[in-house]
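Notes from the 1:1 (GR / supervisor)

We went over the backlog. Supervisor wanted to see one worked example end to end before approving the batch request, so GR pasted a single chain during the call. The sequence is below; no edits were made to it. Supervisor asked that the structure be written out right there so they could see what the output format looks like.
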Amino acid sequence: TKDNQVIHEIETAGLAEEISQQHSAIANRNTPLLKEVSYQLYKRLLKQALNETNISELTVVADGILWNLNFDVLLTEKTNSNNPKKLPFLINRVPISFENSASSFYFNRLQETKNIEELLAFSFLGDANDVTGDQLELSTLRNSEIDLPGTREEIKEISKIFDGAYFYGGSALESAFKLNAGNYSFLHLALHGEVDDENPEDSKLYFTKSDDENEDGYLYPHEIFNLDLPAEMAVLSACNTGTGRLTSGEGIIGLGSAFQYAGTKSLVLSKWSVSDATTPTIMKYFYQNLKSGMIKSKALQQAKLKFLHEAIGEQAHPYYWSSFFVLGNNTAVHFKDGTNWYYYLLFIPLLVLPGYFSYRKFKAA
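Structure output shown during the call:
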């Protein structure tokens, strides 16, 4: 807090290797290794600090290699169980969000969240002649140009939660995004994503292919830089959207930083390739939680935990639910009251007139 600050020194020797081991354990679904290294990382980084204070949320101002660490699945104690549903992950204890710097953290705390009126969402369709239908495969990842039926299911579920403009399949064009994105306070892109860590300017989001001579269907960071995107939040529901080139003091340079430069206050990004089958469920729960008034990190935390509780078999492994994280402004989303007062004005005379005629009848009597 502002008046109660505690500084802990962290031993960094071997830290990069442990973080690399955690990433490998998640990618390879190696639960024993994940348990071992995640507990060691928790002891090194957070155990002392969290034992000395009671917090309701954790904001990480990461630097360097710490951006590659998955804080959700740090283990707060040793356990013999290998069942992900029973492991004492840090996410069970506290919601977690990220900031690029301490200055951005304090700045975002001062910002007021505007009312969310509508959402602009895009799903992905590969080649129109190569549509896979509606079957969702756990092994299908959002990192190539094959059809992604899960993206269409995802924004269909979100459309049931609040209003907006939803571009499905063949209408989910790059030109449509550029034309409309600046007019919406909430952006959701359920697409393919490709990130180049060495050359982040070559990273891109894939929109549906078209015959448009002016657009190639790929949205690059330099194109995002040139847009005005004053959105309250953008969800980049694609593979590796939270990765890129690590820079000291500036966080990660990539797709996420491009949206921030364009004016977006907060982002939901991914740390690795996400499954087209599991992501729609997590996003549905996330938006339901946002609508209920939770801060963004708690909305995502509770969505992940609900998914984990309901997961069957392999889906319970953190690889399938712990990729996404919140970056930037973490305040709750305020949805505009959708009540149409025009109808109330029409309804009031229906209440008044019967009373008036009853009064006239009583007076005449």
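Supervisor's comment: The first strand starts at residue 58 and ends at 61.
Batch request approved.
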